Amino acid sequence: MTELEEKKYIKFKVAATFMILGLLSFSFALLGPLIIEISKIREMLDDKMRSENLNNIHALVSE
């Protein structure tokens, strides 16, 4: 491998590394809000299940 080919190969590796890092940071930037929304939905479902459980307990106690 000549010196010119080695330099091109090193430049290619550096460019590929930065491209992969850019794609990873972009995907994490997209995943952040999605994870927050999923946690909000999960909290809402947990609250709903708690209220249903309380209603069931009240119904059982009143019988």
Structure write-up:
It is a single chain. With 63 residues, the chain is mainly alpha-helical. 95% of the residues lie in helices and 0% in strands. The protein is built from one helix and no strands. The protein has one helix spanning 3-62. The protein starts with a helix and ends with a helix.
Main traits of this protein?
single chain, 63 residues, mainly alpha, 1 helix, 0% strand, rod-shaped
The gist of it:
With 63 residues, the chain is mainly alpha-helical.
The first-to-last residue Cα distance is 87 Å
Helix- and strand-based class?
Answer: mainly alpha
Question: Helix segment count?
Answer: 1
Find the count of extended strands (DSSP E, 2+ residues).
0
Instruction: Report the uncertain regions.
Output: none
Described by strand count, sense and barrel closure, the largest sheet is: none
Helix residue percentage = over 70%
The helix/strand series, from N terminus to C terminus, equals H
Whole-number average pLDDT? 90
The coarse silhouette is rod-shaped
Radius of gyration from CA coordinates: 27 Å
Produce the secondary structure layout.
Blueprint: H1 3-62
Transmembrane segments: 12-36
Keywords: Membrane, Transmembrane, Transmembrane helix
